[in-house]
């Protein structure tokens, strides 16, 4: 749910209008000035450092965010995607930059800021991306309103349309050594070609029909309706800057295709295939296309398993991550697996490694596969020896993503963030694990405080770890108030930067923030998750309070002023705490679960939760049962477009608070911040500002013993 989701989450992408004049070599954005001393730092090229904005919400939402990184097939270019605040201050525009992997040349801006540029693929010297920009007419007929395009930006010249169609494109995959390309396209069931599909779209648009007919589980996802079209697989070729000779590869297969990966030599296409099962469940298989012979076969997948990520070697192996089906008695475990493409046989890599990995890259011979995995408050890069199963950690502090391997297999490139670093681009030596921060168009100011690793011992003897963010002035002579902030998930960990949940905004206002990793958190082994499995109100709750006790015992933490907040699962914990103790001065509950029995049937993925709980445990651990015990002022926050934890949960909680208060209506100590157009996360900058204004005032008022002031625009 919150934090790192337990299943893939899609977010909208868009594009921008490119012009040659947009390509500049400098940009006045700050770089991360206070990250770990682990990487060797290069000098910064261009730009000016800004004063830190964490005391000013307008400045905070103006900070740029690193969102993606891709390496060209020849290893000579890194493409960095950066989101920056738009002119109206109501959203973020994407800008694509080219970085020098050696760090010797300044960044080169490739596109102008505009709504959502998304990197789709790199082939030769071409960059393929999606973009919301005017599509030129092909012949006499102008493109329709439903026409979308894939754009190609060569190393020299302007971007141009690589291919276009009504309904758009779902994904694209290219190989280093082939001109072949795999495309996923959405088409209505029963249509035989693009012309029939376009005619259906046009007819629906003219009649303003948006009704959808579902024939199985899966109606909504995250913040949008699941569309009535299904993905089909096509194969084509890159010729110059165009994608040509497109032909059907899969045909009309219903709702099966989720993603696809092309091998570097163009011989194989692997497809992540969704299979519907009875009682609304889904499972995955990996389906292999031999693009030379046309043969299609399924690999030896485990019954009921899910597969995430696909990485080919050049020697006939496919790596993926296999995740078991969840059940009420135990959480699903996962592991890196290798499929032999000739026989389809499967083997497990590092079977005794007690971490949950994601695969990113591998050496050409398949001897080493590179993964990331949560690990004791970090998310490092690991190298797995596929013969011996040996696991070698390559990086230190932080959370790593968008990992690519250079063609000479000596260097990994990745985005790195940490709780004390908003983001940077690193080059990592594969042999020595030494990281170098590359010159980037983005830099960040020094943070207003310090970060400490903390831990305590739980009632059952387990170690309970976490992080403590402290403002600069915190010491024994000047103790500061504490806010407990519980992460979402619940299968997640506080190990990377979050623009949505930023503790430094509280630190800049003189508050310490405790970020616990209680039972159910990832990065501490399967047994740590098992401690809280189907027991949300037991060990996770006592772990949180035990670590809070430890933090409150410090001389630099003020007595009697602790508040609590959390979102998603953290919101569940906020509700559980509110119904079981009155030790906190105020509680903020964002996108929270209140009535677990009702939640199961209304969330966007009911089968997952149905498999995770026994009915009697749902009732036992539902906060709603204990609504009459609430004594703490609560701020409830929910978005109407939240389909992960539906608005019905927030409304039910709010009604319990209002109906359970026996005082005068104008003395109600609770508040409800409602967002008609936001989802599980509050993403738009203007609403994020209102979120923090409301939360910070609610907590401050509770500590000061007064009623919260109404924010100016509410």
Short description:
This protein has 714 residues and is α+β, with helices and mostly antiparallel strands. Helices cover 15% and strands 33% of the residues.
What would you note in describing this structure?
- With 714 residues, this protein is of the alpha+beta class.
- The chain is 15% helix and 33% strand.
- It has a domain at 449-704: Rossmann fold (3-Layer(aba) Sandwich), CATH 3.40.50.
- It has 11 helices and 40 strands.
- Strands 33-34-36-35-37-38-39-40 form an 8-stranded mixed beta sheet, with helices on both faces.
- Helix 3 (504-507) links the parallel strand 35 (482-486) and strand 36.
- Helix 7 (596-602) packs antiparallel against helix 8 (606-612).
- The radius of gyration is 26 Å and the shape is globular.
Fraction of residues in helix: 10-25%
What is the approximate shape? globular
Order of strands across the main sheet: 33-34-36-35-37-38-39-40
Structural class: alpha+beta
Number of strands: 40
CATH fold descriptor of the domain at 449-704:
Rossmann fold
CATH architecture level-2 label of the domain at 449-704: 3-Layer(aba) Sandwich
The CATH homologous superfamily name of the domain at 449-704 equals Alpha/Beta hydrolase fold, catalytic domain
Strand percentage, roughly? 25-35%
- What's the helix count? 11
Mean pLDDT: 90
Biggest beta sheet attributes: 8 strands, mixed
The CATH first-level class of the domain at 449-704 comes to Alpha Beta
Radius of gyration: 26 Å
């Amino acid at each position: 749910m919150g934090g790192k989701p337990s299943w893939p989450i899609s977010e909208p992408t868009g594009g921008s209008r490119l012009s040659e004049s947009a390509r500049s070599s400098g940009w006045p954005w700050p770089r991360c000035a206070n990250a770990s001393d682990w990487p060797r730092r290069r000098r910064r090229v261009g730009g000016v450092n800004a004063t830190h904005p964490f005391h000013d919400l307008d400045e905070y939402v103006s900070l740029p965010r690193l969102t993606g990184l891709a390496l060209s097939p020849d290893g000579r270019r890194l493409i960095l995607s950066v989101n920056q605040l738009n002119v109206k201050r109501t959203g973020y525009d994407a800008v694509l930059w080219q970085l020098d992997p050696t760090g010797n040349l300044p960044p080169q801006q490739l596109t102008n800021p505009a709504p959502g540029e998304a990197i789709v693929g790199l082939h030769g010297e071409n960059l393929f991306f999606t973009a919301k920009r005017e599509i030129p007419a092909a012949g006499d007929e102008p493109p329709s309103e439903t026409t979308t395009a894939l754009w190609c930006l060569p190393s020299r010249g302007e971007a141009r349309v690589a291919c276009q169609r009504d309904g758009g494109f779902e994904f694209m995959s290219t190989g280093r050594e082939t001109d072949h390309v795999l495309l996923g396209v959405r088409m209505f069931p029963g249509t035989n070609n693009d012309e029939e599909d376009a005619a259906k779209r046009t007819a629906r648009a003219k009649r303003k029909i948006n009704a959808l007919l579902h024939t199985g589980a899966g109606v909504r996802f995250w913040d949008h309706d699941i569309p009535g079209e299904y993905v089909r697989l096509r194969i084509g070729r890159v010729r110059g800057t165009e994608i040509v000779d497109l032909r059907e590869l899969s045909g009309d297969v219903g709702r099966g295709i989720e993603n696809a990966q092309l091998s570097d030599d163009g011989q194989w296409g692997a497809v992540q295939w969704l299979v519907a099962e009875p009682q609304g469940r889904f499972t995955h298989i990996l389906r292999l296309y031999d693009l030379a012979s046309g043969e299609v076969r399924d690999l030896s997948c485990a019954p009921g398993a899910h597969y995430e990520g696909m990485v080919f070697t050049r020697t006939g192996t496919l790596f993926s991550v296999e995740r078991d089906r969840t059940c009420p008695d135990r959480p699903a475990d996962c592991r890196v697996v290798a499929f032999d493409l000739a026989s389809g046989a499967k083997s497990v890599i590092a079977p005794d490694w007690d971490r949950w990995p994601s695969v990113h890259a591998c050496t050409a011979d398949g001897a080493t596969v590179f993964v990331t995995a949560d690990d004791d408050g970090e998310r490092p890069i690991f190298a797995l020896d596929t013969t011996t199963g040996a696991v070698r950690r390559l990086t230190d502090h932080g959370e790593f993503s968008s990992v690519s391997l250079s063609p000479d297999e000596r260097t990994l490139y990745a985005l790195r963030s940490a709780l004390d670093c908003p983001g940077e681009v690193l080059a990592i030596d594969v042999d020595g694990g030494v990281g170098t921060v590359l010159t980037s168009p983005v830099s960040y100011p020094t943070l207003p405080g310090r970060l400490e690793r903390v831990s305590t011992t739980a009632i059952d003897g387990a170690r309970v770890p976490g992080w403590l963010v402290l403002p600069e002035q915190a010491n024994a002579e000047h103790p500061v108030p504490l806010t407990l902030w519980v992460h979402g998930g619940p299968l997640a960990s506080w190990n990377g930067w979050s623009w949505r949940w930023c503790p430094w905004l509280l630190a800049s206002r003189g508050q310490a923030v405790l970020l616990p990793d209680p039972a159910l958190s990832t990065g501490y082994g399967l047994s740590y998750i098992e401690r809280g499995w189907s027991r949300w109100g037991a060990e996770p709750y006592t772990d949180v309070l035990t670590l809070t006790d430890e933090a409150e015992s410090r001389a630099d933490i003020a007595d009697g002023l602790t508040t609590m907040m959390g979102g998603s699962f953290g919101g569940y914990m906020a509700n559980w705490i509110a119904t079981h103790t009155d030790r906190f001065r105020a509680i903020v509950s964002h996108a929270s679960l209140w009535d677990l029995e009702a939640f199961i049937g209304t969330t966007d993925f009911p089968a997952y939760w149905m498999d995770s709980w026994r009915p009697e445990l749902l009732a036992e651990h539902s906060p709603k049962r204990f609504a009459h015990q609430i004594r703490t002022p609560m701020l409830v926050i929910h978005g109407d477009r939240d389909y992960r934890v539906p608005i019905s949960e927030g409304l039910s909680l709010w009604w319990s608070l209002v109906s359970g208060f026996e005082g005068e209506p104008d003395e109600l100590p609770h508040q409800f911040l409602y967002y008609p157009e936001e989802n599980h996360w509050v993403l738009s900058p203007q609403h994020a500002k209102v979120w923090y204004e409301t939360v910070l005032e609610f907590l401050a008022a509770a500590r000061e013993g007064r009623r919260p002031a109404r924010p100016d625009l509410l």
